Write the structure tokens for this entry.
Amino acid sequence: MFDIINKETIKLDQVGRGDIFIKFASDWAGRGIVLGQAITNYFTRIGDPNYWKYPGTSLLSHAAIYVGDAMIAEAVGSGVKQNSIRYGVNQHEVYHVFHCKDREVASLAEECSKGVINKADYDLLSALFSFGRFDDLVRSDITKSMKEKMEKGEHVKFFCSEFVTYCYNVA
């Protein structure tokens, strides 16, 4: 369903709305998230023969959705925001891009992400301990519950990959 492309080898006009941007830990917050994930993963995956199947994946620290015009929707410390990848904290980052082959799904995910901007807070605690929770992130009942809260205007919190997963589940 996805192709993986690297920002260093492509131009932004090759990136589609709704594509997923992923980066490795490059700042103190990202490193803290990676550390928290490693600790959680160690205690939740003891004895799991597949634990080392994908070495390096626990170094991933951030995910966002491309919304066009060099902008991404992302869950950051100040909440779910739309930020430039050309300026500010994102300008020197190297992202890996997951290009969704189903452009209708990508478009719906982008649309969903725009509907969450400035309407959700950041969930730092869950981000720190998120790696062992991936199975929970993709469950449709959690997405349904979060969507109902959003529609009622109730307070919701996301960490970055949870936000991206939510948008794709809604799509």
User: Anything to note?
Assistant: Helices lie at 28-44, 103-116, 124-128, 134-137, 140-151, 160-170. The longest strand covers residues 60-68. The radius of gyration is 16 Å.
